[in-house]
Amino acid sequence: EPEVTQTPSHQVTQMGQEVILRCVPISNHLYFYWYRQILGQKVEFLVSFYNNEISEKSEIFDDQFSVERPDGSNFTLKIRSTKLEDSAMYFCASSPGTNGGTQYFGPGTRLTVL
Amino acid sequence: AQSVTQLDSQVPVFEEAPVELRCNYSSSVSVYLFWYVQYPNQGLQLLLKYLSGSTLVKGINGFEAEFNKSQTSFHLRKPSVHISDTAEYFCAVTNTDKLIFGTGTRLQVFP
Q1: A1: burial class by Cβ within 10 Å (0-12, 13-18, 19+)?
Q2: Which residue range forms the structural domain that includes residue B50?
Q3: Could you say which of A42, A45, A91 has the minimum Cβ distance to residue B98?
Q4: A99–chain B nearest CA distance, Å
Q5: Contacts of A108 in chain B (CB under 8 A)
Q6: Mean pLDDT per 10-residue run, chain A (114 residues)?
Q7: B59 touches chain A (CB under 8 A)
Q8: In this structure, which topology does domain A5-102 adopt according to CATH?
């Protein structure tokens, strides 16, 4: 069964450094998402992406964040200058469609900012 | 705007007992409802979803949920749990494609 993959599984970085989290969505899916889960808190929506554009973003997704689909398979989340509060588990998801289409989640990347 | 409330942060239960995990939502428009499960060190896996039609929805691993519009609830149930059901369960709602999650319920199944 196809699945969403994410790399790395764990990323440790120093405050102020740039990080890129990588995701390979399911191949025939058209909609892509990033969510994050701060330890002990709920899963929060960050951004949705369709047709090479951001379709929706949350208040969390400020100018420090960007997303890109650099080729036909990868979907990346970049944090330009990490802060301590960016430490969280970041989940990528993909979906074949909206309006109730199932979002398939990857295993997550745990980002630790020191 | 939508919101989701999961009233129980933890639910301890013995193996083979029935369980109900509660979820209430708030929305001014019609929504789609989901239950996801997160096993330790894994991502979120869809258990079941309600889009329309029959209010009783059956999912994987013997779980089912009932959509109750008047009570704005979508409680998850299983008649007999296994040790392997120990996990975090998240209720989510959307009317577009942005999922709004509840805070999660940790189901702990004891032998």
Answers
A1: exposed
A2: 3-110
A3: A45
A4: 5
A5: 43
A6: 91 97 94 93 94 93 93 92 96 87 92 97
A7: no
A8: Immunoglobulin-like (2.60.40)
